[in-house]
Amino acid sequence: MKLADRKLTVMQKPKRSPRQRFNKFVQTTTRKIKLRWFRLRGGQIVNFLHIPKTGGSAVKNAIGNNLSTTQYKVHLRGHSCHLKEIPKGDKFFFFLRDPAQRFVSAFNHKKAGKKRWKHKKFAEETAALARFQTANHLAESLSSGSEETKQAAIAAMNCIEHVNTFYLDWFHSQEYFLSRLPDALYIGFQESLDQDFLTLMQILKLPNVTHLPARDSLEANKNSDELSTELTQKAKENLERWYADDYDFLRLCQEKAPDVLANYQRGPT
């Protein structure tokens, strides 16, 4: 049986006991106090903004055991952390990728039944994944001649987790991002992840033994090769329209990334 034909699995978020909730609270509070104390002593906090399906899981797994270096203390943020939640003066870094390829990765991630949990749009997501067999099928349907199919595709784009997010969900607006650009430590791209991670290692002063997990490992969170990643020209054009703001932001970051790296290389003025 092909992976695409398997029954979708559901991951129930485990309910924590009162003791587990208390321990989590203590752990989180302790981490916040340590970071605040480190900051008050003049230390530099570096935050990783984790945008789903951009290579972030591989980066997190690679540097997870080296969160304190000679120059920085690294705070690995979750998907829900946005730039506005990071204090001004703290550094941040992140990775992006081509929005159409991010869409394919997100769709296939859910189609394979990975990490599906009962979020508020879970029922709609389940129906959408059952209706649209491939990422290309969904993308092409955005301009279907059938109004019913077109509306179903639009609904799917708005309910499938990660497919329904946009880069500015994390950065608020291009203007706000530019206002925080002096705090940007590094901007990387999934398409050049291996080389960009080597540059990041040098910036963070990570030990030479630090490396990305193998592309096909669980730590890399890579999708199965059994699911199609092909996009027709029609599908690409539809996705370029749907993610127009994402493409604008990607181009902005591609333009600014060399300046961000140059600012680091020049050091404090």
Give a quick summary of the entry.
With 269 residues, the chain is of the alpha/beta class. The protein has a single domain (42-266), classed as P-loop containing nucleotide triphosphate hydrolases (Rossmann fold), CATH 3.40.50.300.
Structure report:
The protein is α/β, with parallel strands linked by helices and 269 residues long. It has one domain (42-266): P-loop containing nucleotide triphosphate hydrolases (Rossmann fold). 48% of the residues lie in helices and 9% in strands. It is built from eleven helices and four strands, in the order αβαββααααααβααα. It has helices at residues 18-40, 56-63, 99-111, 122-131, 135-141, 147-159, 168-171, 174-179, 193-204, 233-242, 244-266; strands spanning 44-49, 72-76, 91-96, 184-189. Strands 2-1-3-4 form a four-stranded parallel β-sheet. β1, α2 (56-63) and β2 (72-76) form a beta-alpha-beta unit. α4 (122-131) crosses α6 and α5 crosses α10.
Which properties best describe this structure?
Rossmann fold; 48% helix; four-stranded parallel sheet; alpha/beta; 269 residues
Topology pattern, helix = H, strand = E: HEHEEHHHHHHEHHH
List low-confidence stretches: 1-12
Q: Based on the structure given, which CATH architecture is correct?
A: 3-Layer(aba) Sandwich
- Main beta sheet: 4 strands, parallel
The CATH first-level class comes to: Alpha Beta
Q: In total, how many domains does the architecture comprise? A: 1
